[in-house]
Specification:
Layout: E1 3-8, H1 22-39, H2 44-51, E2 53-64, E3 73-83, E4 87-96, E5 99-112, H3 122-131
Antiparallel strand pairs: 1-3, 2-5, 3-4, 4-5
């Protein structure tokens, strides 16, 4: 499954050259990941409150391929690359029309309230496995 998240580039997203500032791509893919998890039926607020569990980015590999500019309509595509007991690996791409502008491989880990690694609950592993 590929989850799609639509967005538009605002003036505040751009730098002096009129292109999207590099760090804003990380914000775009974060928003898309939140919506991806929500689409899977995972309530992150409840997960924190009930299981004292949160997701954190452990590793990110990113390639900036082409610039986005003010007022561009973009799509962030999120797909799963793998799931384990503690981690989830996602591929996230930012596109303008069919052109890939940004490509990232993101490794998320589940953390307990104390900050240590925590096993993903079975229902979450199942939801993620069904999407693979």
């Amino acid at each position: 499954m590929i989850h799609r998240f639509d967005l538009r580039v605002y003036y505040e997203d751009t730098d002096l050259a009129g292109i999207v500032y590099y760090a804003n791509y990380l914000k775009y893919i974060e928003r898309a990941r939140s919506e991806y998890v929500r689409a899977l039926g995972i309530d992150q607020v409840a997960l924190k409150a009930e299981a004292d569990l949160v997701f954190a980015v452990r590793r990110l590999e990113a390639d900036y391929l082409q610039p986005a500019r003010f007022d561009d309509r973009l799509v962030v595509e999120t797909s799963q690359e793998g799931v384990g007991g503690v981690r989830v690996v996602l591929r996230q791409r930012v596109l303008r029309d069919e052109a890939v502008l940004f490509d990232a491989l993101v490794t998320l880990v589940a953390l307990s309230g104390g900050g240590g690694p925590a096993r993903l609950p079975a229902n979450i592993r199942r939801a993620l496995a069904e999407e693979a």
